[in-house]
Amino acid sequence: MKYDDDNIFAKIIRKQLPCDLIKENNNALAFKDISPRAPIHILVVPKKGYINYHDFISDASIEEINDLNELMKNIILEMKLDHTGYRIITNTGNDGNQDVKHLHFHLLGGKNLGLMVK
Ligand code: AMP
Questions:
Q1: Is the beta carbon of 24 within 6 A of some atom in ligand 1?
Q2: How far, in Å, is the centroid of ligand 1 from the Cα of 109?
Q3: Is the CB of residue 7 below 6 angstroms from any atom belonging to ligand 1?
Q4: Residue 99 and residue 35: Cα distance in Å, rounded?
Q5: In angstroms, rounded to a whole number, what is the distance separating the alpha carbons of residues 5 and 95?
Q6: Distance CA 118, CA 109 (A)
Q7: Distance separating alpha carbons of residues 8 and 17, to the nearest angstrom
Q8: 84 pLDDT band (50/70/90 cuts)?
Q9: Which residues of 29-65 are buried (b: 16+ CB within 10 A; e: fewer)?
Q10: 104 among known catalytic residues
Q11: What pTM, to 2 d.p., does this model score?
């Protein structure tokens, strides 16, 4: 599958659509999910276009991978999620029920999230 430059997260990254920004660095952006499933529901995305996790890990530079992980880590620490716990999810493809075809990690927390898969 080819990456579609017109997906909603690509437009957010290009600032063609607004987002509720949490934090960013050179290669990654974090913003609030528009339809939160938990008290804390943040999306962490690479700025460059990758459809999913395996594309990212195959093709991204070390700087891009480091920046995404650094952004995730800083949000976890700043929100003290390391004290309370959290969940990181990335949905991929059909079986993963991925809606937006730009890699994103859901960072969820702020309550007990229950079982991982029902
Ligand atoms: P997924 O099913 O893993 O592809 O998740 C896509 C997520 O994107 C959902 O949780 C949506 O609520 C979220 N979403 C869709 N549009 C926006 C938007 N404009 N700003 C923030 N989050 C969005």
A1: no
A2: 16
A3: no
A4: 13
A5: 23
A6: 18
A7: 8
A8: very high
A9: bbbebeeeebebbbbbbbbbbbbbeebbeeebeeebe
A10: yes
A11: 0.98
CA of 35 to the centre of ligand 1 (A): 7
| Distance between Cα 42 and ligand 1 center (Å) | 10
33-56 residue pLDDT tens: 999 999 999 999 999 999 999 999
pLDDT value at position 118? 78
Taking the CA of residue 41 as reference, the ligand 1 atom at the shortest distance is 10
Alpha helices in 1-118 (DSSP H): 8-13, 53-59, 62-78, 81-84
Confidence grade of residue 1 (pLDDT, cut at 50, 70, 90): confident
Closest Cα to residue 45, out of 35, 32, 36? 32
Q: 2-19 burial by CB neighbour count: b if 16+ within 10 A, else e?
A: eeeeebebbebbeeeeeb
Distance of alpha carbon 28 from the chain centroid: 9
Q: Which of 41, 83, 102, 104 is catalytic?
A: 104
Q: What are the distances in angstroms from CA 117 to CA 2, 3, 23, 60? A: 29, 28, 29, 29
